[in-house]
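note to self — DONT lose this again. spent like an hour looking for the file last time. sequence + predicted structure for the chain T wanted, 437 res
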Amino acid sequence: MTLNPTPVRTRLKEETRGVHRRTEDLPFFHALREGRLSLDAYRGYLVALRIILRSLTEGIQDAHDPRVSALGGEDGFRLNTLQGDLDSLEHARPRESREAGWHPHPRAIVRAHLMAQQIRARARRSPASLLGTAYVLHGSVMGGPTLGKWAADAFGLRRASGAEYLSGERERARAGWERLLERLHAMELSEDETEEVIRAAVEAFEGFGAVVQALHPEPEDLRTLPLQDLNPSAGDHPITVDPLELEAALRAGEDSWNRFPYYAERYGSRGAAFTRSDSAWLVTLARAPQEAALANVLWLSRLLSTRGMPRWLMEEHLLRLHERLVDTTPAPAGSWRNLLLAAETLREMRTAHVTDDEMVSISEAFDASAGASFTRRFPETGALIAAAVADEADGIQGATRSVRDWFTSRRRFTSSTIQAVKAAVVASETAVQARSR
């Protein structure tokens, strides 16, 4: 491993100088200093901070890299204090907006969640790169006391009623910042790791800038649903903008992609964007009439099946989405019943042609034939093939072909893998035929 001769601390300062200055010069901060910022925009800023900082804190805690996990005791982000400020500001909102569950600045909330999603992806893919993210967000803590004074002056807030987090203790913030800089100065990183740290820092500045740009100047219609931020290629349909519901939707999408690497291999960044927007839309179906919710799930799952995503994948995603919503939001578990009912309906359609036991048997036989290397790369492929065949048997023309043709491409896979795929298709079709006699 070739170590980078220039300390990462020095490179971070030099290579983020431009994006740092552009972020500090955004209209949001000028408006806050001059007392022109709305209280809702300030509240949105704190909500976004909580989303971003919590994701980084979790990433640091979960990192399997001692250089990163050592930061866990020094994060200095005081999330409980931040939540206390938000609780104070929430009580000060008009009762009608609280009861309606209205969340001003939904675009900023979405952008904060997208930044949090990037941080979680970095924690999985390149834990050392979180040092760059931490560099940027620790720096924001350093500037907090100044912002806190501006906010207190602008909104007449006391520290204990909405400005305590930003006001903070300057010396405590400075001590944490100095500890981070000392660690960065002494740290040995390879050239590749250093580049990732720099990219993460620039990404954090840009992501944070995108958030505050959505807060000020304020759009004419604060209730505009920011679907395009989640997925520029999406159509025009509603999505949840409740911060906790949106977090559950995005995390459920990540869970699905982590379980099935097939998604990333086949559909790439465009597929990831549709996973975000579709998952956020599915949350809204929980509040729809049961019949309408089911009709929409069946429509989407059928469409996706023709494109190589058998309805079993939607079934599993709905179950995970339900779990995330129950775990993340304060709403009663029964609020999300439509999602469970839709998942159960999809299961009944699938098992009418290929049972759960048959899927397990086909999957095990496929794994044994395809080999460990392939199954590590594409786990549960046998079940995926069986599910596609079940969809075809249920009247979705092209469901089998869409999966089979991709997995039997000679430019992607070996002859032995292709033979295993074809055998799994035959086994699945045999199971379907046996049940139809």
